Request: fold
Amino acid sequence: MKKPSFPLPLPVVKPTRDQLKPGESLCDYCTGKCCRYFSTPIETPTAWDDYDAIRWYLAHELTLVYVHEETWYLLVSSKCQYLLEDYRCAIYHDRPKICREYTTKDCEYDDDWSFDKVFETPEQIWEYAEALLPPRPKPPERRGLGLLPIVTAPS
Ligand code: SF4
Ligand code: SF4
Reply:
């Protein structure tokens, strides 16, 4: 028998939520969208140091920061190591609580990822901060940390 090739092809036309037949699950038509990233709320930035921290988040690959209903979130687009090639969970019966409590009710199956605000690069968040905040105070001069002269040993 020919082995199935992965990733498994999904039906070309995805049903909408209300087109599901009895006994079907949205997950049967999804490539595991919710297992391909995580996002976590972060403090709402108010000062330069807060924006500086976000600039650092965004300096990393596959991150973005978004605002939804006035809450700020850090999103990391990183696939869970337990997502199998057939889009099922390798540890389904022992999956973390956060996964067990997640349902298809409000999931991102048909989400178009529209956010109130989204920042994808350090430059974007810096520009935003510059538009909101007074000029950033210069960091204090660090003394004694300049390059030392090279001293050659006497011959
Ligand atoms: S819960 Fe939603 S996003 Fe996650 S796999 Fe199922 S349908 Fe896809
Ligand atoms: S543990 Fe399973 S359900 Fe949870 S994110 Fe990973 S693949 Fe998805």
Notes: The radius of gyration is 24 Å.
